[in-house]
Amino acid sequence: MSERVHTPPGPPVVGNVPKLTDDPLRFFVGLQEAYGGRYPLVRLDPPVGQSFVVVLDAELVHDVLGDRDRFARPALGPEEQRRQGLLSSDGVLWEQQRSVLQPEFVGGKLSEYADITADTLSETVGDWPAEGRLDLHEELSTVTMRVITRSLFSRDTEPAQARAVHEALGQLSDEVEPSVTDVLLPESLQPGPSETFQEADAVIDGVASEFVEWHREQANPPADMITALMDAQDDPEVELSENELVDEAVLFLTGGQETTALTITYAFYWLSNHPEMRERVAAEAAAVLDGTEPAWEDLSELTYTERVVRETLRLTPAVWNVTREVRQPTTLAGTELDAEDLLFMPTYSHHRDSRIWSDPLSFRPDRWDGEVSRSEDAYFPFGSGPRICIGQQIALTEAQFTLAHVLQQYDVTVDADELDLQPSVTLRPTDPVYATITERPTPVPE
The domain that contains 405 carries what CATH number? Predict the structure, then answer.
């Protein structure tokens, strides 16, 4: 016999719902600690707006994410509501888009993208001064955007384009917090997109449209993601409009660039707090790379660097929360769910659950050396199920390559002792992340 989802009485849940909007990260971590292990699901009922369900059982998270028949990806916020790319589409359209794009992210393509990453890093780091101060997040955003466009769009990004997209993404994040605001307020009370939002969105649209139009103008367009989508438009069995093609370019341009840049930024931040770990990454890079740029075959040897990336994704996942909507009345973990119920699965709090992780708030890369498994249920930085991030291997490669390539040449120290994080569409720093860089002395041959 099924029951209703448990709603914990009084504080710290119902009585403290305002804290959800004040500090969502702390709220969900507290909820996980207070009720995880006791209840697989809890329902929160704000004084106004839609109630929602938080999934506290990690195994249940994977069940939800793996079940596209019962649970759909909702379009939260004005940006997602108007886009129909792979990251935001659903149903038959999603299946068509995934089948068209999957070949661009497997096999030999990955080693090609690794070479592009290494070349881009060499060009970028080659322009750095021997000593100086950088806006690290902006610098890394430029690198990751160049990698995305060179890999998937076959064209480099102009500096002005990279800056424009970086600034526009910051403006969009300031304007939109869909995982919180769109739940607490009834639709009739939610503000529409502001003029700032529309201007930022138009900037990103314009950059993506330029890449698509360039492909249209080529007599023999390169074999890449945009060309694959253009070819799919000619297939009578695939329904893909011109707007959807641009939407796809926008979502890869922003999603792939933004999440990877954030991951690398946070990795440098954690290593700045643990200089001995930073030197260990530098030593591994020196031993494996020997002063050269990284290559695909080096990836498996950068073992400690990989652990640093995985631990960064645990403590500061760029995708801090995953949301699903119930398609029709159903039961989950023996409890009743209504159609259109929203399910929150906060990656951030699952990654800090003290029942799963020993010393959960500490940055310990070596926990990934046998203590925990990559397949741990409570670890899902790239999601799970059929909609798991299609570009996860590219992101991991970029992150490992960047840490190794940079730290074999430079000492990088993030200036801030703590980062103020904004849980919006992604988990972004509220302020620029500045870092001091100092070139390492070239080893003297023995």
Answer: 1.10.630.10
